[in-house]
């Protein structure tokens, strides 16, 4: 097993990325290739003691920044760490590519260089975050703002496989994010996806309302990338706001003041846990290779966890299983649509269920 | 001025509703009609001292519950407080109707009994909530799961008028909830709405990302009812989750324990403020009459505030101003669409911008 890590992506690259790689190496059996500016990365590596046979540096002369336009950057910066990393996965020189860089560029490179798994209409970013009962997987976390029913159906199937094989959940529950629990709620797209998932999705628990997303009622939350983006970004915003409110409202009370100094520290610790640093980043599912997107503000701990989680992602053949299951899924879905006038009508309206 | 209040709607009806009416009467100049079961409401009224000439009870023999299907309930329960209240506004016996009852039934009754303002395509629920800089108005808070561009444009216009005339904001800023700040982000529907609002909306500040919704960057947040529902319900869920996390994570620390008992009480107080009880409920905008939906769990304070806020809603002619402005808006929008190929294309695709 050879894991490729983008040494140049993220707010704390290369310092924290390199530290995360060194920290991870004793937890895994495979080797690590760090891709990026060789002298910068070597300088970081020299700070640590580690088995030099197990971490290699692959030089990349270019860097794709967060300000770069994804498609243009991937096409023009051929010697960037993201492009090289993705090429190495395609050429099977590496088994997985992990990056905290420009999300759009990673997604674009995965699509252009690795390509979609045949029959998967839209690859997706699946983002694990903390809920009451442990990790919850949000699919789509922001890749596809507008979705067809078939996209949502495929997101559920892929999320389910990742949750079982990588996050080691037995029979994870899959739900559709919706504005009501009853069948028939929501947009036509969601209604159509619901009809198909009810008959195709393992452990489908139906619709879930936004107030229940963090309550552990479902382990995989399926929605379009617009809703996924709103949920993830609003989470950040509301935490900021809560801290602001607590500070504002409690500052008059002496008893509270004592607690506040302490609590604020603890709060920040808790909030950090709510992001996906524990769960090893967000996989890009539906492409012909294993790719993990880490949060841009990932530090060594998140990098280490992403590397450790990448092992079951590769060893348990997530990409191959998705490939096999989507073919199966398409056949069953065709049969369902044939027998359902609402689904046929949507197909004809150009909503392209299939 | 005669204000109609639904005596039977909400979790604490009629007790808290009646108390709220009695509390409000000394703050306003108009009179109040409480609609509902006469003997129940009279029994509550007898608990208080108040000017009996200023609060009347209008008997209603039926009640629409939260379990009732909206359309069926409005059609069959003709003697319910919601139907009677709406009829009284239509007949100008009352100037405004306020209810904490079944949201769908209130919306349906407003549509069927009062009717849409001519040229308004879809009436909307506008929900005020607390942000860093004071109240923020979310339009649509859940009435229309699927929206056309013109609906979003109208939501912005109506929300702006309400915010100015009722919540007394000078020049409130209007933003479109989106997945990025740059123009051209988001779904085609949002892109089209953006193009029109840029040229028609007073004080339009462009797109706003979900992480900024509570930061006071905009005063009116325009989105479809699906997104609005997700935002409002997720807010409830995340507060529950935060309390759970704090309790779980801090229970080992003695210093924190001292603070927690105190903080939990304060936290609940703060959280209550984050709902719209301060801002007098959520108006239904775009119908031919003034209607306010209160939260189902409204207590006397929220009822009192809703009644007080109803005064400027009526006195400042919000309904009439919306009527006048939408005609103006439609004319300008037609001119914009004529000159824009993207907007024309969407019109032809059946997305019905107009």
What can you see in these coordinates?
2 copies of one chain form a homodimer. By secondary structure, the first copy, chain A, is α/β, with parallel strands linked by helices. The first copy, chain A, has a domain at about 1-115 and about 285-315: Isopropylmalate Dehydrogenase (3-Layer(aba) Sandwich), CATH 3.40.718.10. The first copy, chain A, has 12 helices and 11 strands. Chain A has helices at about 15-25, 40-45, 70-75, 80-90, 105-115, 150-165, 190-200, 225-250, 255-275, 300-315, 320-340, 340-350, and strands spanning about 1-5, 30-35, 55-60, 95-100, 125-130, 135-140, 175, 205-210, 220, 280-285, 290-295. The radius of gyration of chain A is 21 Å and the shape is globular. At the A-B interface, helix 8 and helix 9 of A face helix 8 and helix 9 of B.
Q: What is the C-level CATH assignment of the domain at 1-114 and 286-316 in chain A? A: Alpha Beta
Which two chains touch over the largest interface?
Answer: A-B, 52 and 52 residues
Number of strand segments of chain A = 11
Number of helices of chain A: 12
Query: Regions of chain A with pLDDT < 50 over 5+ consecutive residues?
Result: none
Under CATH, the topology of the domain at 1-114 and 286-316 in chain A can be stated as Isopropylmalate Dehydrogenase
Q: What's the N-to-C terminus distance of chain A? A: 36 Å
Strand content of chain A: 15-25%
Shape of chain A: globular
- Structural class of chain A, by secondary structure, is alpha/beta
What value does the Rg of chain A take, in angstroms?
21 Å
**Strand numbers in spatial order across the main sheet of chain A:** 3-2-1-4-11-10-5-6-9-7-8
Helix content estimate of chain A: 40-55%
Spell out the CATH superfamily of the domain at 1-114 and 286-316 in chain A: Isopropylmalate Dehydrogenase
Largest sheet, strands/sense/barrel of chain A? 11 strands, mixed
């Amino acid at each position: 097993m050879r894991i490729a890590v983008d040494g140049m992506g993220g707010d704390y690259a290369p310092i924290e990325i390199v530290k995360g790689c060194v920290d991870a190496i004793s937890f895994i059996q495979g080797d690590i290739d760090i891709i990026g500016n060789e002298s910068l990365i070597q300088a970081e590596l020299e700070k640590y003691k580690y088995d030099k046979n197990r971490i290699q540096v692959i030089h990349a002369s270019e860097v794709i920044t967060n300000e770069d336009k994804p498609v243009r950057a991937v096409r023009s910066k051929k010697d960037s760490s993201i492009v090289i990393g993705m090429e190495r996965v395609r050429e099977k020189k590496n088994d997985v590519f992990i990056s905290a860089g420009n999300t759009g560029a990673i997604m674009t490179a995965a699509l252009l260089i690795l390509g979609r798994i045949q029959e998967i209409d839209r690859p997706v970013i699946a983002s694990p975050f903390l809920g009451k009962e442990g990790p919850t997987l949000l699919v789509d976390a922001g890749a596809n703002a507008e979705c067809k029913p078939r996209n949502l159906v495929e997101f559920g199937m892929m999320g389910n496989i990742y949750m079982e094989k990588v996050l080691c959940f037995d029979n994870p529950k899959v739900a559709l994010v919706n504005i009501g629990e009853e069948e028939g709620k929501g947009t036509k797209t969601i209604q159509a996806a619901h009809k198909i998932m009810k008959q195709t999705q393992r452990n489908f628990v139906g619709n879930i309302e936004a107030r229940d997303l963090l309550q552990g009622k479902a382990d995989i939350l399926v929605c379009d990338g617009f809703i996924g983006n709103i949920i993830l970004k609003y989470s950040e915003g509301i935490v900021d706001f809560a801290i602001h409110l607590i500070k504002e409202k409690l500052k008059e009370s002496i008893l509270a003041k004592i607690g506040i100094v302490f609590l604020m520290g603890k709060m920040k610790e808790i909030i950090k846990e709510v992001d996906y640093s524990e769960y090893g980043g967000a996989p890009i599912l539906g492409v012909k290779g294993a790719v993990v997107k880490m949060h841009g503000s990932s530090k060594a701990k998140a990098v280490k966890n992403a590397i450790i989680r990448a092992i079951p992602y590769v060893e348990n053949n997530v990409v191959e299983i998705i490939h096999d299951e989507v073919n199966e899924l398409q056949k069953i879905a065709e049969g369902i649509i044939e027998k359902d006038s609402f689904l046929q009508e949507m197909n004809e309206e150009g909503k392209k269920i299939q």
